[in-house]
Amino acid sequence: MNITRENIDALNAVVKVDIAKDDYSDKVDKILSDYRKTANIPGFRKGHVPMGMVKKQYGKAVLVDEVNKLLQEALNKYLTEEKLDVLGHPIPKPQDDLDWDSDKLSFEFELGLAPEFEVELKSKKPITQYQIVAGDEMIDDQIKNVQKQYGKLKPQTEITKDSEVTGTYTNEEKGIENSVTLTLDKFKGKATEKKFVGAKVGDVIKLKTKGLYNDDHELMHALKLEHDAVHGLDIEVAFTITEINERELADLDQDLFDKLFGEGVVKSVTELKEKIKEDAEKQFKQQSEQKLLNDVTEHLVENTKFDLPAEFLTKWMQTSGENQLTEDQAKEEYEKSEKSLRYQLIEGKLITDNDIKVTMDDIKGQAKEMIKMQMAQFGQMNPSDKELEDIAARVLSNQDEARRISEQLISQKLLELYKEKANLKTKELPYEAFVKEVYGDK
After folding, report:
1. pTM reported for the whole predicted model
2. Which of 194, 219, 197, 221 is nearest to 208 (CA)?
């Protein structure tokens, strides 16, 4: 067997594999000999079928199968030994006139080669690293929500603007009949609130669905309709009041603190505010770090310039899937995935150049931390090492889950690299301002 390579250019090459009859004949003969021992052909006893008949019936298929196995093994070994960084997989060149009876068989494969490039993390213009803080207003709102959640309901004779109202929406024509509990702040505008304030149990309030709630999703749940059914819905519904309550706020005392965080963890309103601020900013940190990761990724893709073997990759996409694509479909698919492919190459370069590695111990440690956090949500604060080991082993037996955790760790290590080497500027702002600046005023 002989393998040679011709470089077409920096991104494309053709590999030629020459296979001699001696490379496969012994293996083919052995397989056919085994077939002869077990072949069931009418008119012949098992094991006494003439070899010529066996070759005639099975020879070509066995030959093709063995040659293909040799080709795959030879190509894989060649790419590894030559340390060729290829994109996609080798594409065989069509050979309609191949003579399988020849003493020498030649095959050619197209290769797409990964480009050589450098990644510059230090951008001229600094990338914003957001530090999101929980403001006093947010903390006070959170405390009030907690007080409401743990507070008691007190019956009322008539509705006030702070009441919790239970009732039933109906519309006979549309078949709507759904009981809900609501607060008046969910309605859009003050006109609807005025219709409710002062009303009593048994009263029926007529409402127009168009513009009733701030969000169509609220209307969807209120009327128990599908999303498409409430979009643009403009009908009249009746709301029959069945219950009116006032929610008394829970006292900010040790009993409430213990319910929220465990016995003795928080002992005063000041500590409560500090704890809420700390927990909120932990969540904000995850959000700001994801934003930083996205922004650096976008910057690297836009500013790291290199060519790709586009024609080869388009052809590879055309033939590599379960269903073969047309040329136009493959071009469209390539255009969709080019940005992702570029980042994969950039990420691979950063991982190699900075010796970023994730070990099995790292993956297991991350799995344990995730499990501990999940168990804590259900009140299991101190699981034993054996419990964690057993659950982690079950989680990591799922290869998809193990790969997901590995990718998560790689992202964390890349984020640490960006914080160390990229040109960043820190910007501190409250969560509401962060949302407005990053996602627009919603």
Report:
1. 0.73
2. 219
